[in-house]
Amino acid sequence: MIRFFRLWRVARQDLRLLWYALRHPGRPVWLWPAALVLTAYAIDPLNLAVPALGLIDDFVLLPLALHWMLKLLPLDIRVAYARRSLVRS
Fold this sequence. Notes:
The chain is mostly helical. The protein has helices spanning 2-23, 31-42, 46-49, 51-71, 75-88.
């Protein structure tokens, strides 16, 4: 169970980076469609039809897919986000 909380802690950081990247003027063209597909996958009706499968999706597959997607971001966006985060702390 502790691993799930660690995974969601990383996912929370990734969601912040995603929000920053979506508003960044140098974002890749594929980012908005990929974020929309990931959001649609998160709320798909399969979660309601098969609850156990929905839990696996929500706690494992979605954070991993989000993290992988953000690894594909250009380095300058990730560096700008890291600098912004350091200034705020």
